[in-house]
Specification:
Elements lengths: L4 E9 L4 E9 L4 H8 L1 H4 L10 E3 L2 E3 L10 E4 L7 H10 L4
Parallel strand pairs: 1-5
Antiparallel strand pairs: 1-2, 3-4, 3-5
Length: 96
Amino acid sequence: MAEADIQVQVCHALPDSSFLRSLTVPAGTTIGQAVERSGLLQEMPGIDLAANVVGIYGKRKPLDTVLREHDRVEVYRPLQADPKEARRRRAGNKPA
């Protein structure tokens, strides 16, 4: 008996465009496999899964994480600035 298929989404956002695709994949599919099947890497060739962080609903996950029904895989952009350093700069610029 074959395992059931599950519904998942793959998304990625840039300042000027976004990618969101719903997929039906076999149970047992990993994050990496879902990203490859979604067509994201072909539509946005600048994405490198070895360098970009991925997650499910805002929680960082490794590429070999097995997906569950209705998971939303998110491929994140690299940070432009270290959040702690940016906070220090803002705090340092405030008048006493």
